C-alpha cells in the first residue's frame, strides 16, 4: 500500500518515524546559489537536433566522442580493442586541465562484444569478461587508454573514494556452483587505483563489503563510512552501510574489514510506498548476519519487517554532507508497493534522516534514472536507462526535471556521468553504442 504524510503521522506518530515536512523543497538541489544550478534554474532550454545523430544538446553546448568500443585500440602491451558495455565512471584530477577516468564495462560470460583484455596482474577470474579501463584526458582529447581490471563480472556502477580510487561493483552473485565455467565467487567490490599506488599481483575482492548484486558506492569522507546499493529482486535489494575498521582510509584500507549493515526505516518496508516530496524519515541500521552470502543471499537473510527494501536501487553519490540515492522505478505488478518512474532520496548521515526530493510520475517525459552525479558546483545530473528515448537529466531546485542531453543515435541508456574537477567538462557513456563523450558549454546559464 502507498504511504502518505497523513498515514505516516497517524500510523506511528511523528516522533517514532522522525517525520517532518521538508519546508522549502525548492532548496534541495541547489545546495548553494552557484554557477551550475542557480536558485531559479529552469533548465538550459530545449535540445537542438544533432546533424550527426549522436547527442542532442541545448544551444551553446557541444560534445566530442573520444572512445569507441570495438573500434579504437588500447595502449600498452598487447593492444586490443576498446571493450564494450561502458557503464559507471569517475573522473579524478590529474593536474591542470587533465583528468583520469576509470570506466566500468558491464560484460557477462558468453558475450560476443569485445572484452577487457586479460593482461598479467589484472585478472581475477579468467572465465569472466568484465572489468575497467583507465583513460587519461585533457578536456575532450584522449591521451592514454589502458585496461586496469579484468576477469570480473558485470561491472555496473561503483563510486569514488576520498583518497582518489575507484570502487567498481559486480552486479551478480554467481558462483562456480551456480554457473559452469567460473573459477571464483562473484558479487564483490574491487578497488582500482588510477595512479598506480596499489601494486597487487592479482585483483583483491573487498569481501567485507558483502557479496551481492552491487550497484553503486558512496563514501562519507568524514568517517569513511561506505554506503552501497543493491539492484535485485525476489526479494528487492537493500541499501547498506559499511563501517570500516580503518576509518581514516587510504588505498587498500577497506581490506582491513569492518561491519556491514542494512537500512531499516521503521514502519516502511518498501521505499516506493512514499509518494510525497519532502517526506522525511528516520533510519536505523541492522547487522548483516553473513556478508559473504555463504548459503543464502544477503538480502534474503532478513525478514521483511526487519529491513526496508528499495525497488531498483541504483545510483548513489556523496556531495556536501549528504548522500543522494536513486530508485530507478517501481511497479506494483512486480511486487512494489506503488508505481513510480524514479525516485531520488537525500540521506543525511548526521541526522540519520532520509528525504524524498524527486519523484518521476509514470507516463512522464523522463523515466528510470540510474547513475547519478553532482557537479563541483552542486548541480545534479541523472543518467536515464528507460524505455524509448534516453536523456541526461538536470533537475531544478524544486525537483522539476529538465533535459540536458539526449541520445540521438539509439535507445541505449546513458551511464557514468562525471564532471572534471574544474566543472568544465561532463564525461558520460552511451552504453549500447559503446561511446564515451565529453560535453562542455555554458553551465552557468539557466
TrEMBL record:
Pfam families: PhoX (PF05787). PROSITE patterns: TAT. The keyword Signal applies. InterPro entries: PhoX, TAT_signal. It comes from the Bacteria. Residues 1-35 form the signal peptide. The keyword Signal applies. Keywords: Signal. This is PhoX family protein. The lineage of its organism: Bacteria, Bacillati, Actinomycetota, Actinomycetes, Frankiales.
Amino acid at each position: 500500500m502507498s504511504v502518505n504524510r497523513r498515514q505516516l503521522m497517524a500510523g506511528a506518530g511523528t516522533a517514532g518515524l522522525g517525520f517532518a515536512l521538508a519546508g522549502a523543497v525548492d532548496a534541495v538541489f541547489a545546495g548553494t546559489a552557484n554557477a551550475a544550478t542557480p536558485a531559479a534554474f529552469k533548465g538550459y532550454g530545449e535540445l537542438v537536433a544533432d546533424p550527426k545523430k549522436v547527442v542532442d544538446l541545448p544551444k551553446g553546448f557541444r560534445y566530442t566522442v573520444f572512445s569507441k568500443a570495438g573500434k579504437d585500440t588500447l595502449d600498452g602491451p598487447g593492444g586490443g580493442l576498446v571493450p564494450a558495455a561502458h557503464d559507471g565512471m569517475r573522473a579524478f584530477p590529474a593536474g591542470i586541465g587533465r583528468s583520469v577516468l576509470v570506466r566500468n564495462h558491464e560484460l557477462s560470460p558468453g558475450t560476443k562484444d569485445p572484452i577487457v583484455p586479460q593482461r598479467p596482474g589484472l585478472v581475477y577470474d579468467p572465465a569472466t569478461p568484465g572489468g575497467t579501463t583507465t583513460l587519461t584526458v585533457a578536456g575532450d582529447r584522449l591521451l592514454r587508454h589502458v585496461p586496469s581490471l579484468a576477469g570480473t563480472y558485470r561491472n555496473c556502477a561503483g563510486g569514488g573514494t576520498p583518497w582518489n580510487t575507484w570502487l567498481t561493483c559486480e552486479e551478480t552473485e554467481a558462483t562456480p556452483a551456480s554457473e559452469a565455467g567460473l573459477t571464483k565467487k562473484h558479487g564483490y567490490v574491487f578497488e582500482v587505483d588510477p595512479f598506480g599506488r596499489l601494486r597487487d599481483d592479482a585483483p583483491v575482492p573487498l569481501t567485507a563489503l558483502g557479496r551481492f548484486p552491487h550497484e553503486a558506492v558512496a563514501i562519507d569522507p568524514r568517517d569513511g563510512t561506505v554506503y552501497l546499493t543493491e539492484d535485485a529482486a525476489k526479494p528487492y535489494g537493500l541499501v547498506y552501510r559499511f563501517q570500516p575498521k580503518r576509518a581514516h582510509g587510504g588505498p587498500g584500507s577497506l581490506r582491513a574489514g569492518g561491519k556491514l549493515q542494512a537500512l531499516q526505516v521503521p514502519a516502511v518496508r518498501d521505499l516506493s510506498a512514499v509518494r510525497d516530496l519532502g517526506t522525511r524519515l528516520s533510519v536505523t541500521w541492522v547487522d548483516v548476519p553473513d556478508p559473504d552470502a555463504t548459503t543464502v543471499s544477503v538480502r534474503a537473510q532478513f525478514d521483511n519487517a526487519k529491513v526496508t527494501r528499495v525497488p531498483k536501487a541504483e545510483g548513489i553519490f556523496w556531495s556536501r554532507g549528504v548522500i543522494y540515492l536513486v530508485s530507478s522505478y517501481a511497479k506494483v505488478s512486480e511486487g512494489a508497493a506503488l508505481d513510480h518512474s524514479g525516485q531520488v532520496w537525500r540521506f543525511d548521515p548526521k541526522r540519520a534522516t532520509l528525504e524524498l526530493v524527486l519523484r518521476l510520475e509514470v507516463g512522464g517525459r523522463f523515466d528510470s534514472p540510474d547513475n547519478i552525479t553532482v557537479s563541483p558546483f552542486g548541480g545534479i545530473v541523472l543518467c536515464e536507462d528507460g524505455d524509448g528515448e534516453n536523456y541526461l537529466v538536470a533537475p531544478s531546485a524544486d525537483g522539476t526535471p529538465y533535459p540536458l542531453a539526449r541520445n540521438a543515435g539509439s535507445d541505449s541508456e546513458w551511464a557514468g556521468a562525471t564532471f572534471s574537477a574544474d566543472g568544465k567538462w561532463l564525461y558520460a557513456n552511451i552504453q549500447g553504442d559503446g561511446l564515451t563523450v565529453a560535453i562542455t558549454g555554458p553551465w552557468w546559464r539557466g
